[in-house]
Amino acid sequence: MISQERVLEVLKEAGVLQEGHFRLTSGRHSDKYLQCAKIFQYSKYSEELCGALAEKYRDAGVSVVIGPAIGAVQMSYEVSRQLGVKNIFAERENGVMTLRRGFTIQPGEKVLVVEDVVTTGGSVREVIDIVRANGGDIVGVGAIVDRTGGKIDFGVPFQAVISMDVTSYEPDECPLCKQGLPIVKPGSRQIS
Predict the structure, then answer these.
(1) What pTM does this model have?
(2) Which of 4, 30, 139, 185 allows an S-S link to 168, with CB 3.0 to 4.6 Å?
(3) 4 contacts 11 by C-beta, under 8 angstroms
(4) Distance CA 110, CA 154 (A)
């Protein structure tokens, strides 16, 4: 079992936690941004954090791990490697999350949905819909970082390596915007 102190140490060592004024993928604003992709630059951190998550689902009968592209592609691989099961990912096509590249989920397969950081859970919910539409049985959702402080509910078991209550704001309620601070859109998905 990994300690919360060790998780924070890894996040700092890997340069994951950033401070400033950020527009998140969800469209919300925050003074903190967690760039979990930086974890995957270093296999030692990826192995350690994904291993901690895999342990939480070790006895759940998982047969497939799936995550949304692009943020959870490497994570899905590492969690599945540690569980010794298949991994796939969902990706956007014409703005809609879908299975491509010949990936399939068979009816009744036990599926673990993973995401690097959960803020609103939008991408996770889209992947859950794909799994259910294909007849998969969702055993749970796993994340490295839960930004909601444990407040999110996916209707299935949810486990995170670390849960942090990181404040985020609707754009029209953002105190950082009201202060006139410049905003940064980190990450890979553009918001219009």
Answers:
(1) 0.84
(2) 30
(3) no
(4) 16
> What residue spans define the domains of the chain?
4-178
Contact yes or no for 37/143 (Cβ under 8 A): no
Yes or no: say if 45 and 10 are a contact pair by the CB < 8 Å rule.
yes
In sequence order, the 6+-apart residues with CB closer than 8 A to the CB of 170 are: 28, 29
Beta bridge partners of residue 88, listed in sequence order? 66
| CATH 3.40.50.10330 matches 4-178 | no
* Nearby residues of 114 by Cβ (< 8 Å), 6 or more positions away: 53, 65, 66, 67, 72, 75, 76, 79, 141, 142, 143
Question: Which residues fall within 8 angstroms of residue 58, CB to CB, at 6 or more apart?
Answer: 83
